Amino acid sequence: MLLYVIRHGQTDYNRDERLQGARDIPLNATGREQARGNGRALAAAKLELPLEEFDWVASPLGRTRETMELVRGAAALDPTNYRIEPLLIELSFGDWEGFTLADIGVDSPERIAERERGKWRFRPPGATAESYAMLAERIDRYLPTVTRPTICVAHGGVIRTMFERIGKIDGEEAALLDIPQDRILKTDGTKIGWI
């Protein structure tokens, strides 16, 4: 396996520390520049293959698709030549999406305390909500499909689960990792790190 992973660029929800999860929130100006910067970085990097020989894959959400198109455009590739992978969608925060943790703490301090005691397995309220552990099971289904060198655009939660699964980092530690939006992650299936 050879997989490069880029987190989508910043959105207003990221800037304001709102839980966006599976909500379809667009990039802001900072996020668009982060995406272009990642495209320029890929074009300048000495990768194992020419960029056009990689399989290019994105989560179906608009912020990842826009990031992908900006990355590809900045790397002098056809912006639309990539495919969508539903398994890469961000975890759902259910009823908490759109709120900050401070907002939620006003009405549900006990739920925030529960989350802080075990973020990896914590599932917010709501029928669609997922824990990081649940997301990791979905990523377990995605990783075996990476059968050729791939560049993908996904989400912070997806990358955290890759650190847990591939990097063998404890789930609680992985759930707390800061995932930058202006760097590129590389994994060969046994080790993982930023380039």
In a few lines, what is going on in this structure?
Pfam families: His_Phos_1. The chain is α/β, with parallel strands linked by helices and about 200 residues long.
- Mind telling me the CATH class? Alpha Beta
Per CATH, what is the topology? Answer: Rossmann fold
Number of helices: 8
Q: In the residues, how many domains can be counted?
A: 1
Count the E strands: 6
Q: Tell me what portion of residues adopts beta-strand conformation.
A: 5-15%
Low-confidence stretches: none
Q: What's the name of the CATH homologous superfamily?
A: Phosphoglycerate mutase-like
Overall outline: globular
What is the first-to-last residue Cα distance?
A: 16 Å
Which series of helices and strands comes N to C? Answer: EHHEHEHHHEHHEE
- Placed side by side, the strands forming the largest sheet appear as 3-2-4-1-5-6
- Main sheet record: 6 strands, mixed
Global structural class? alpha/beta
Radius of gyration, Cα only, in angstroms?
16 Å
Pfam families: His_Phos_1
Protein name: Phosphoglycerate mutase family protein
InterPro entries: His_Pase_superF_clade-1 (IPR013078), His_PPase_superfam (IPR029033), PG/BPGM_mutase_AS (IPR001345), PGM_Phosphatase (IPR050275)
Organism: Hoeflea algicola
Mind explaining what this structure looks like?
This is Phosphoglycerate mutase family protein. By secondary structure, the chain is of the alpha/beta class. It has a single domain (3-194), classed as Rossmann fold. The protein is 38% helix and 12% strand. The protein has eight helices and six strands, in the order βααβαβαααβααββ. The chain has helices spanning 12-15, 29-44, 62-74, 101-107, 109-117, 132-142, 156-165, 171-175; strands at 3-7, 55-58, 83-84, 150-154, 184-187, 192-194. It has a six-stranded mixed sheet, sandwiched between helices. α2 (29-44) packs across α3, α4 (101-107) crosses α5 and α6 (132-142) crosses α7 (156-165). The longest helix has 16 residues, at 29-44. The protein is globular and about 50 Å long. The model has no long low-confidence stretch (mean pLDDT 97).
